[in-house]
């Protein structure tokens, strides 16, 4: 009898451990296997720098999304907002001849406004956030094509703008990584150490109780959507600088990976709670996966399958994690 | 003849017996060597403070959680209950305070919900199910068309539907958790008649979990008192008085601690409500609330008490009429406006309105105090040192039982959670505290402590508006009580006029 019980107890504990640290263990195993099988191409300093560099934009957009997911909503427009930001920033510089110091703030303000509209519709008209952001995302795609007529804006992009992502710290660490670290630290502080962050978490925990504690729930949610759009905007601008052009659909696919990372992250270190550090780790699990696939020369179709599978798998893992949190 | 003897012997064997049940959560012993018998055809009252282990025991019997040790016998045979399905098959049925029924389904759909449907050729045979459900309802003498949607029923009838559901599953034992919590007096009477019929005439065992001792005395055949995971007392009901039970539960003599109502010098009006209409529930309500007064607001459930409270707090809108707060017009559009003026609310439903349930005690206490913890006035960073100090202070002041301020609030008992919901406002030194059912689901010991907090604060000048269905708590606590019926004030009682009888009379009275 006692044996049976302690077995149950052990099983529960191990399940809880797995759901908390399983993703990290998975990450380590992945790194280990890739390193052993491909020591010369995978386990090199340059490859890791490469992984971080490629993952930095994903991390920025995914962490912005985390703010929305914490309050219990979804933002399906981030990919389109990022693409639009890339097109708009290059367009403003090339077509409108605005200096970079004016173009970037304008784009970020536009992105904040898109987030504001998302939030306003969701909180005031009580439309589901999935529907609202898909709809607004569609409108943003339309604006994107209207502004660029669908053609990439590639010629005449000022060097100053391209240099944004070309510079390297100590001639070694790419600027993207620096941007990512700075932005993530700022967002982490906002979410964990400020009153706004506490309110965001309270709204995510229990909207009713938050409102009755004097929190303006609608405002907090709207700010979350503005954070998400703002970070999507920065991602789009950096991406445009990186590829040297504003392309209409450049960042659209960032959304799926961002969601996968956010959910993987919620099952990392915490029991199904969304948090920035988790999202960051989630991004790099996915990034290392992609990197490994590329090194092993997996065909393109397989990357799509990996992408879809990891999204569904991540959400499943997150659900399991929050289930065992209560036990 | 032989048959008869056998039957007699069967009655000797309890339907359900648990022996030496143990269950721990982390370091806390939720159940410590508990042994109990539930006899056929008897109502067994299960009482005890929140966190005494009642719900853990029920969860084990329901197959929701495994026990760490001990045995379960059904009709004398040792049984294991690994999952809820087995529990149902063994004839055990559980009705929780929050009924697990679907509001949009009709009665027959609710009663047969989740059970294998009677089918002919793979098609649901509604006719046969109809007949079976009708048979069950007849046993309960419930006379409502089967296609009535659940949301059209009163709470009492919803309880009867839940019981019908248990009978439809062929339950031999039905455990009821706080069945009368939101029932009116006459509905309680109705439910009790059903329970008596089920036990005396149909041999069903009932486990009756409640904080309401008067009801326990009336309906139960035997009682068990639990405390800190242990069974501390058992008696059949004829051999014990209510005061004795209270003594056992509280561990001290509460009844001798008769509340002393402070005479309030009713001079300063704090809040004046004039001809308020709202939400079709509140009709032409006017009253004054004085500084340092404990004003009771009562009446039957659903007569507009909660709506009135939410309106004053700014959680719902007023349709017409006006309020004056400290002599100035007051029309809050959001709880924040009320809070900034010193009016706070301890809401009715702790779980869905009071606490942020996956967060720590510290997080919950500091939520309304965030700006109080700023190190630099214009910078909205959270000062974790200061917030921890606030939490520790509140925990000490309200005698909250928690291992630390970082404990998840869900690990606290109901009474202690309630203290946190009250305590989170204290740092703001509120001038008016509205409490909606402040002691619902709170154990006797914590109740006394909450009453003391209220009285102490009132002496220091804080005003209280206490909404309560508990006609036993109002007389000792309030200096004045307003009674509502169907959204209108039917009367006002002061001091010695506040008695259970007078409150009940006004609750059923009609406003002119």
> In terms of structural class, how would the helical and strand content of chain A be classed?
mainly alpha
Number of strands of chain A: 2
Tell me the major beta sheet of chain A.
2 strands, antiparallel
Which range best describes the helical content of chain B: under 10%, 10-25%, 25-40%, 40-55%, 55-70% or over 70%? 25-40%
Helix content of chain A: over 70%
Structural features, described:
- Chain B: It is a peripheral membrane protein.
- Chain B: This is ABC-type sugar transport system, ATPase component.
- Chain B: One of its GO terms (molecular function) is ATP hydrolysis activity.
- Chain B: Its EC number is 3.6.3.17.
- The complex is a heterodimer of chains A (327) and B (512).
- Chain A is mainly α.
- In chain A, 77% of the residues lie in helices and 1% in strands.
- Chain A has a domain at 42-252.
- Chain A is built from 13 helices and two strands, in the order ααααααββααααααα.
- Chain A has a two-stranded antiparallel sheet with strand order 1-2.
- In chain A, a hairpin with a 3-residue loop joins strand 1 (168-169) and strand 2 (173-174).
- In chain A, helix 1 (2-37) runs antiparallel to helix 13 and helix 11 (254-266) packs across helix 12.
- Chain B folds into three domains: 12-250, P-loop containing nucleotide triphosphate hydrolases (Rossmann fold), CATH 3.40.50.300; 265-342 and 430-512, Rossmann fold; 352-428, no CATH class.
- Chain B has helices at residues 2-12, 54-61, 84-89, 107-111, 126-139, 155-168, 185-202, 213-219, 242-250, 305-312, 335-340, 350-354, 361-366, 384-397, 414-426, 444-459, 474-477, 500-507, and strands at 16-25, 28-38, 43-48, 69-74, 77-79, 92-95, 119-120, 123-124, 173-177, 205-209, 222-227, 230-236, 269-278, 282-290, 294-299, 320-325, 328-329, 343-346, 432-436, 463-467, 480-485, 488-494.
- In chain B, the strands form five sheets. A six-stranded mixed β-sheet of chain B has the order 6-9-10-3-11-12, with helices on both faces.
- Chain B is globular and about 70 Å long.
- Classes of the chains: A mainly alpha (327), B alpha/beta (512).
- The A-B interface holds A 1-2, 5, 8-9, 193-199, 201-202, 205-206, 208-216, 273, 325-326 and B 66-69, 313, 315, 334-336, 339-340, 345, 347, 352-359, 363, 366-368, 370-371, 380-382, 410, 424.
